[in-house]
């Protein structure tokens, strides 16, 4: 990306024209040319070629797109509201107070959709770490690997509330959905340090999603984990291609959230000796096949008599009451 001041010397503009007029004219001309995109932050103008931008930046990944679902928030009691705040989904109606100005960084839990497409959520808790930008703006930034110091190209997509550029980093470090990700300020406002919380490599029992005969199933398997994670949120997968196919089929069939809950909840419940499922686990599992913030999921569960709260964020299921 180049500022207009660096482009001007390459142009044959009238020498008697002031630099301010030249910059204004150049910015106007490039803004009208579909081949160029302003990828600067705030009032900073940086011109870049559209064709060099990653497809996931120009066209948001389908897994991150949320079609709003009407629901009644009065069904969310204080416990569910607190869980919603902890998850901090970028599409939640609840908005956290911005961190104090001297906050150096935050730690978030990586949700399934963002793990799959190599992104981070842009929420009220994370937005302050990234440069400010307009709703229709995309800003190119640098993400620094907190382990190695290696720079990675990143992009802030303000309209769709995500930061792209971590797919390879997730894969190389075997970061699972549910891992704790630490984000820190850097001296350069266009740079953010990204890290995970390391631990001794160990094989752990985790939930794994798989697809059999067009149905989403879950089972417990031992996976090698090298980072700290939220036990309630971690989800692995058996076959990425089959899960993606089910995602598309679920979207095209326009299956209701209630139908998805009736399929996913019993699958998760069978993994627990008590037959219960935590609300945070259910949220991440639903997002394997449909993008949805916790609010509609929690409200749907709380409004249906077949889902029974048993305390501590856990719920039971009674098929006879459906």
Structural class: alpha+beta
N-C termini distance: 56 Å
Number of strands: 15
> What does the main sheet amount to?
7 strands, mixed
The sequence of SSEs as H and E is HHEEHHEHEEEEHEEEEEHHEHHEE
Backbone shape: elongated
- The percent range for strand residues is 25-35%
User: What is the residue-averaged pLDDT?
Assistant: 93
Summarize the structure.
The protein contains ten helices and 15 strands.
Properties at a glance:
26% strand; 3-stranded mixed β-sheet; 10 helices; 322 residues; alpha+beta; 27% helix; 7-stranded mixed β-sheet
Question: Secondary structure elements and their pairing?
Answer:
Elements: H1 4-7, H2 19-31, E1 36-38, E2 47-49, H3 55-58, H4 78-87, E3 105-109, H5 112-117, E4 119-121, E5 138-145, E6 151-157, E7 162-164, H6 167-172, E8 180-185, E9 191-196, E10 198-212, E11 215-227, E12 236-237, H7 240-253, H8 257-269, E13 277-278, H9 279-286, H10 294-303, E14 307-311, E15 314-317
Parallel strand pairs: 5-9, 10-12
Antiparallel strand pairs: 1-2, 3-8, 4-7, 5-6, 6-7, 8-9, 10-11, 13-15, 14-15
Helix pairs in contact: 8-9
Q: What would your notes on this structure say?
A:
The protein has 322 residues and is α+β, with helices and mostly antiparallel strands. Helices cover 27% and strands 26% of the residues. The protein has 10 helices and 15 strands. It has a 7-stranded mixed sheet with strand order 3-8-9-5-6-7-4. A 3-stranded mixed sheet has the order 11-10-12. Helix 8 crosses helix 9. The protein is elongated. The model has no long low-confidence stretch (mean pLDDT 93).
């Amino acid at each position: 990306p180049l500022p207009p001041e660096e482009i001007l010397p390459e142009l044959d503009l009238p020498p008697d024209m002031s630099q301010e007029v030249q910059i204004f004219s150049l910015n106007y001309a490039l803004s009208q040319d579909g081949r160029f995109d302003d990828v600067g932050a705030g009032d900073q103008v940086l011109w870049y070629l559209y064709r060099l931008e990653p497809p996931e930046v120009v066209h948001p990944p389908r897994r991150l797109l949320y079609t709003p679902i009407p629901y009644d928030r009065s069904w969310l009691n204080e416990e569910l509201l607190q869980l919603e705040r902890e998850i901090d989904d970028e599409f939640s109606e609840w908005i956290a107070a911005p961190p104090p100005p001297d906050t150096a960084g935050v730690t978030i839990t990586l949700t399934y959709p963002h793990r799959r497409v190599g992104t981070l959520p842009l929420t009220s808790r994370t937005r302050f770490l990234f440069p400010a930008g307009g709703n229709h703006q995309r800003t190119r930034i640098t993400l620094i690997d907190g382990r190695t110091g290696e720079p990675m190209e990143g992009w802030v997509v303000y309209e769709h509330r995500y930061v792209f550029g971590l797919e390879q980093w997730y894969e190389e470090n075997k970061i699972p959905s549910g891992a704790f990700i630490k984000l820190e300020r850097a001296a350069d406002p266009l740079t953010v340090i990204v890290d995970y919380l390391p631990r001794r490599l160990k094989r752990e029992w985790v939930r794994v999603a798989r697809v059999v005969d067009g149905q989403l199933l879950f089972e417990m398997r031992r996976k090698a984990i090298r980072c700290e994670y939220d036990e309630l949120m971690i989800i692995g997968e058996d076959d990425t291609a089959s899960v993606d196919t089910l995602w598309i089929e679920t979207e095209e069939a326009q299956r209701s959230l209630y139908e998805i809950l009736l399929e996913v909840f019993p699958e998760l419940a069978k993994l627990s000796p008590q037959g219960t499922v935590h609300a945070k686990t259910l949220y991440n599992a639903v997002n394997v096949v449909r993008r949805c913030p916790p609010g509609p999921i929690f409200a749907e569960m709380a409004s249906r008599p077949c889902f029974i709260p048993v305390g501590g964020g856990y719920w039971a299921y009674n098929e006879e009451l459906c």
